[in-house]
Design goal:
Order of helices and strands: EHEEEEEHEEHHHEEEHEHEEEEEEEEE
Structural class: alpha+beta
Shape: globular
Number of strands: 21
CATH topology of the largest domain: TIM Barrel
Oligomer: single chain
CATH superfamily of the largest domain: Metal-dependent hydrolases
């Protein structure tokens, strides 16, 4: 498998971001990401997909959309739409109809920031996903970096601090979202998890202080979705686009918080009697299954089965477990950074059936 680092869920001037597509690509070229996916609100912008290059570096820019019902008050049920062959914003008033339209057009549907609380100090309302009756979506945005910011700014003073020191914000997905994901997995659904930056690079002012909140380049160094593809990127846009979206559709990816340390080369695999699989795949329990996780460097490592911690290892790089019972198995890894224990890696599950 070949690893591609993708930063997704971001906005340009076509909706409520501050940059142009070329600005986002230029920021990405300064970081370690291989691809970015732009998702402006309720508009599928054409004409900017492709490889952007600088010297011997290149980054692939893809375009999706973040769709929600603009007539609804308060705002809820934002959907990340990736790889759809058509504009789907016209279906936003009915979340299930929207998801159906996305799937019918060959696209992927991820529930955006499932728990996105209010931030009264900044007049930000709760924009969580609330319609949990929906079916047939691809997955959820497990970790949204901007939603997490809203949980740590009870006052404008807090906001000012994090505006100047954004590296102190991230500590992991919102706990309610993790719990909800485990509930969905326990119900028998296959729900792929992705991490999104929700980058806007907003210009904020407080008196004489003017600051860009979370510049694009900073976002691209933090919460990324690492995708495992069958062959290396070729430079052909349509081919590489298909490789990335096929892997996301299958959940063949993990969420990595790359600011404390790179999460490249994390792997979570299962070896059965006849098959060997990675994240997002199913494998029969018969005869026993050997699960193995390998971290790029030593950290706290947790093996989770059906939402419950099965094994915790401290300061380890490898975890091996023989599973004899069916279940949904996934990995979490943590490390200390800037004086706090922070989430580092969240794998997609392996489904032992």
């Amino acid at each position: 498998m070949h690893e591609v680092v993708v930063n997704l869920h971001m906005h340009t001037r076509y909706s409520d971001g501050s940059g142009l597509h070329r600005d986002l690509a230029a920021a990405a070229l300064k970081t370690d990401v291989d691809a970015i996916i732009v998702t402006d609100h309720n508009i599928l912008v054409r004409g900017f997909e492709g490889y952007y290059k600088e010297k011997n570096k290149k980054v692939l820019l893809l375009i999706g959309e973040e769709v929600h019902d603009q007539a609804r008050n308060p705002q809820k049920n934002h959907l990340l739409v990736l790889n759809a062959a058509r504009e789907t914003a016209a279906f936003a008033d009915d979340p299930q109809r929207l998801i159906n339209a996305v799937r019918e057009s060959g696209g992927l549907a991820f529930l955006a920031h499932p728990h996105d609380p209010e931030a009264p100090a900044f007049r930000e309302t709760d924009i969580s996903w609330v319609d949990w009756s929906v079916q047939n979506y691809t997955g959820i945005e497990l970790w949204n970096a901007l939603s997490e910011l809203k949980t740590v700014v009870p006052t404008k003073l807090h906001g000012a601090f994090y505006a100047f020191f954004p590296q102190f914000v991230a500590s992991g997905p919102i706990s309610a979202t993790l719990t909800k994901w485990d509930e969905l997995l326990a119900s028998g659904q296959k729900v792929a998890a992705i991490g999104g930056s929700d980058a806007h690079a907003l210009h904020m002012s407080m008196g004489l202080i003017h600051k860009i909140i979370f510049p694009y380049e900073f976002h691209f160094r933090t919460v990324n979705t690492h995708v495992l593809i069958a062959e290396p990127l070729s430079g052909d846009v349509e081919n590489d686009k298909k490789l990335i979206y096929d892997a996301l559709a299958q959940g063949r990816c993990f969420i990595g918080y790359d600011l404390p340390a790179s999460t490249r080369n994390f792997r979570f695999t299962a070896q059965g009697k006849e098959d060997s699989v990675t994240m997002g795949a199913e494998i029969p329990a018969k005869g026993g299954v050997t699960l193995q996780a390998k971290l790029p460097s030593a950290a706290e490592l947790r093996l989770i089965k059906d939402g419950q911690v099965l094994q915790t290892l401290k300061n380890q790089q490898i975890c091996t477990h023989i599973a004899t019972e069916p279940g949904v198995y996934r990995i979490e890894a943590y490390r200390h950074y800037l004086g706090k224990r922070r989430g580092w890696i969240y794998s997609n599950p392996i489904y032992v059936r």
